[in-house]
Design brief:
Elements lengths: L4 E4 L2 E4 H6 L9 E4 L2 E4 L3 E5 L2 E4 L4 E2 L23 H11 L2
Antiparallel strand pairs: 1-2, 3-4, 5-6, 6-7
């Protein structure tokens, strides 16, 4: 079985490992470790109202819903979001 690969800034990382790098149990593209903010390695600041996620290969301006909140480090990938937020999104996706 071949593990799918994900390209990030001239590096190839197996997808299984790539997803493990995304902050868990939080709805943002960062977490705190030892009182220091640790930003998701896929998140990149572009400008005041625009950021880029190399995991999703999209920026705020590329969002299907118009302008997203990547610029404010709000997750668009849905990986590792809190269970409450996930259940809330599932409720509205069914409508």
């Amino acid at each position: 079985m071949t593990i799918p690969k994900f390209e990030m800034k001239n590096r190839v990382i197996p997808i299984v490992i790539a997803e493990s790098l995304i902050p868990k149990n939080i709805d943002y593209c960062y977490t705190y470790e030892n009182d220091k903010q640790k930003t998701c390695p896929f998140w990149e600041f572009i400008s005041e109202d625009n950021a880029y996620c190399s995991y999703l290969k999209m920026s705020d301006c590329d969002s299907e819903h118009g302008l997203s909140l990547l610029w404010d480090q709000v997750k668009e990938c849905g990986i590792g979001i809190s269970e409450i937020e996930y259940l809330y999104e599932m409720e509205f996706d069914d409508e």
